Amino acid sequence: MLSREWRVEGAMTTADDPVAREIEALAAAIREHPLDWREHCAGDESLEHALRSLEGAVDRAALVQRTESLRAEFDELAERWHEETSGYSFAAQYASHSAYRRIIGMGYPVLPLIFERLADSGGRWYVALHAITNASPVAEGERGQQDKVRAAWLAWGREALIVS
Question: Does residue 73 share a domain with residue 37?
């Protein structure tokens, strides 16, 4: 662990004792001036490594926050769609629902969430999956057989590295 101190626009922090607001100030400074910190720690490999690690942590935290926001929106839309279309039997009926159309509009980033729902509880996600991916993994003779359709889509998701 580093014990070196550094200053960022008036804030001082120690790598041994990271305080959340100081780390955020450092992260903000790194984002605002990405090359400046490299000049100040040139030749100090341990400090350079620590700052690169911090940059990565900030990027991962931002990704987690966006993912959580996406999940919250998806969950809300999926629940509304499910509640309001549970009595529908035709794809044209449930696929035209505004919440379902919004999920489709969320695009590729929502695919892991759709596949998660499909794997856990099934559901009528096939129109959305096709609309987002333009894939048709279901064999002609298996269409309409829910277990086979679900298995085909989940296999496609694994092959596309969307589902683990």
Answer: no
Crossing angle of helices 126-133 and 111-121, in 10° steps, is: 150
pTM for this predicted structure: 0.61
Question: Residue 86 CA to chain centroid, in angstroms?
Answer: 27
164 in a domain, yes or no? no
C-alpha–C-alpha distance, residues 162 and 157, integer Å = 5
Contact call for residues 146 and 122 (beta carbons, < 8 A): yes
* Segment 121-132, tens digit of pLDDT: 988 899 999 999
Burial call 43-82: b when 16+ CB within 10 Å, e when fewer: eeeebeebbeebbeebeeeeeeeeeeeeeeebeebbeebb
Q: Tens of pLDDT along 77-86? A: 999 999 998 8
The number of beta carbons lying within 10 Å of the beta carbon of residue 122 is 12
Supply the range of the domain harboring residue 44: 5-64
The DSSP 8-state label assigned to residue 162 in this structure reads S
Q: What is the largest CA-CA distance in the chain?
A: 68
